[in-house]
Amino acid sequence: MQRCLIVTILALLIFVPMAQAKSEITEFPVQSGSHPHDVAPAPDGTVWFTAQFLGALGRLDPETGEFHHIPLGRGSQPHGVIVGPDDAAWVTDGGQNAIVRVDPETEAVEVFPLPDDASNANLNTATFDGNGILWFTGQNGIYGRVDPETGEVEVFDAPRGRGPYGIATTPDGDVYYASLAGSHIAKIDIETGEVTVIEPPTPNQGARRIWSDSEGRLWVSEWNAGQLGMYDPADESWQEWRLPGDNPMPYAVYVDERDDVWLSDFGNNSLVRFDPETETFETYAIPNAGAAVRQILGREGEVWGAESGADSLILVALEVE
């Protein structure tokens, strides 16, 4: 497998003390023009990121700031990346209209094309259910699944057409997706593939991404409404909170190991932390202008984002109490 030349750039260390949150921000420049779309920290300490405009998967060593790129195939335009139960990187590749697996040891690339009748799906994000099956979304009106053991790929038409975007799994193994164009969330029956649509209280809110906390509550970034939404499947109740600042535009959402909720706010070029216990927000200004963080993921003590507009990755390191 051919790999790109390794590039070493020392991390641009920009520390922004946050007295209340006890944290600091570090930015890691990656290749100019690469447009890192999504990010996923790996168990071995490295960080995967999709270099969307290069058709490659990037891998960063935060200790040195060194990164390199792994080409994914002809026409590749990777969008999302997550780490699977096998510790491999799993990529939703809109350019190849395929799911791609990258081995963490050998960096070998394996491609799982979508069926011919699901062309131009506009693939977005992926998650694994409790049975080890990968589920994915396509904004042009599909969702689907891949069985990593057999390689079988199955695609379903979304019940309301265009819109499936973010997707997440609860601790019980249930899978939900958010529909940006459809302004709703939906629960997938992982056995039959059928979907139950769930309507948020605010019409046309633009549910973009979704994440579960440790209790199985679903947190939703409401792009059009400038709000954070929370759906509790236990009693089918909703709550919504407007983000602080002028013209908030929440894109990414992620829940850390403390059950704090993190969002990226395009309107105010910031990361935002929400404390569900106090129902309060804390804003973290991003040093790079126009950062456009499209995905947030983390591991213990760390929250990572991909600055697609600034060709950097961003780390919020939380002090261990």
Summarize the model shown.
The protein has 321 residues and is mostly beta strands. It has strands at 7-8, 23-29, 36-41, 47-51, 56-61, 66-71, 78-83, 89-93, 98-102, 109-113, 123-128, 134-138, 142-146, 153-157, 164-169, 175-179, 184-188, 195-198, 207-212, 218-222, 227-232, 237-242, 250-255, 261-265, 270-275, 280-285, 293-299, 302-307, 312-318. The strands form 7 sheets. The protein has a 5-stranded antiparallel β-sheet, with no helix packed on it. A 4-stranded antiparallel β-sheet has the order 2-29-28-27, with no helix packed on it. It has a 4-stranded antiparallel β-sheet with strand order 7-8-9-10, with no helix packed on it.
Write out key terms for the chains shown:
321 residues, mainly beta, Methylamine Dehydrogenase, Chain H, five-stranded antiparallel beta sheet, four-stranded antiparallel beta sheet, globular, disordered N terminus
Secondary structure layout:
Layout: E1 7-8, E2 23-29, E3 36-41, E4 47-51, E5 56-61, E6 66-71, E7 78-83, E8 89-93, E9 98-102, E10 109-113, E11 123-128, E12 134-138, E13 142-146, E14 153-157, E15 164-169, E16 175-179, E17 184-188, E18 195-198, E19 207-212, E20 218-222, E21 227-232, E22 237-242, E23 250-255, E24 261-265, E25 270-275, E26 280-285, E27 293-299, E28 302-307, E29 312-318
